Amino acid sequence: MFDFDLFVIGAGSGGVRAGRIASGLGARVAIAEEYRVGGTCVIRGCVPKKLFVYASHFAQDFEDAAGFGWQIGERGFSWQALIASKDKEIERLNALYVTTLKNAGVTTFNERATIKDKNTVVLADGKEITAEKILIATGGTPFKPDITGIEHAITSNEAFHLDEFPKRVLVSGAGYIAVEFAAIFNGLGANVELAYRRDMVLRGFDDDLRSKLEHEMKSQGIKVHLHTQIDKIEKCEDGLNVTFHHGDVSQFDAVFYATGRTPNTAGLGLENAGVKLAANGSIPVNEYSRTNVPNIFAVGDVTDRIALTPVAIKEGHAFALTEYGNNPTSAEHDNVASAVFSQPPIATVGPTETEAKEKYGEIDVYVSDFKPMKYTLGGRDERAFIKMIVDPKTDKVIAAHMIGPDAPEIIQGVAIAVKNGLTKAQFDSTVAIHPSSAEEFVLMSTKRD
Ligand code: NDP
To answer: Is residue 391 situated within a structural domain?
Structure first.
């Protein structure tokens, strides 16, 4: 009766996983992608960002190498060479995604699809396709506030393709993307300033991590302007003149906006099928990712639940199992670990100390503040910090927060313990791996007052 059992709009992390699994379970699946298969994470998000983080970190490593006996000769950095290698890797991953879909038997349309009615999508070339179910996995797009000259500003979309390396960069915002890119540009040699409208970077994270990151950013040379808004941006002979709300004017080569992302629902035709949207344009769904229209579903950033790739993947997978595997599965959204690839990086699982106090009343907090061994000979004046929060009633470890080298690698393992409700006593009974930073997690014996 329908051309396909499932039509997925958007071939990013969530859409590809859902389509692939549904097809494996016997559904006839099609997917449409207007840009490049792989989505934000692979094409212009997590993956190229992490490659840039590695690139920028060499600056520190070269400096520290002397303490270990290395003499490093003249150093030079080519932005164009970095972009070229990154592009090659993204090409490779994009091709892998395309092949994965093909091998899974999913029909891919490389064009935009919009919704005509609850069972019909229209492709950019006008072709109409019917499907029993439709999955919206269109992700999000960078949001830029409407100020004078905002058209001169770049976002993460453009930052991966700049022809010239900007030597003076102003970053607006202080969330994940802002602090990550501030560190990237700084490490690669730019003069970086960051303007944030509130009092401390990374709102939503544990306050100790926030203040320690801000301290490290400043000691690495990033100028952090708090309580600061940008009023206007004007093109001038040597770059961009930025006027701040307090009247100061400064010049930059690039103004990078990392002020959040908006769900990609505009112009999708959702109203034609009666799909309700939230005020911010996201698609509300139930625990099985179903919208208010029973045969239309949504996963990933477009639903504005937790905007992280692994979450979108879990949601897509759960959707496919539920609808085509006779196995109702809801993607869990509790104790989701996440990392910020700032320099130093942050990783975290569970509530912040403030949130934990609100939820549990009394809590035990263990902290460890130390100089990572790697920095001793290198002479780097940077510290790592670990915080563990325990519910004294049950002895369960309810949260773990870390800032310092390898924090994301370490917290991924700790997250398994936190998610599964292991107790502080069980952590303490685990033998340490020495010497490591991770061992602090099994050696913390003194509660903080
Ligand atoms: P975030 O929501 O993390 O941060 C947005 C920042 O912009 C905040 O500091 C916010 O301030 C500020 N802001 C928002 N609106 C304005 C405005 N009108 N004027 C000035 N400042 C403003 O968004 P990002 O863009 O950094 O990232 C989007 C999402 O992508 C993240 O939430 C995350 O889920 C995901 N992501 C995850 C990564 C990872 O896992 N490592 C990496 C990159 C992105 P305020 O605090 O006052 O609201």
So the answer is: yes
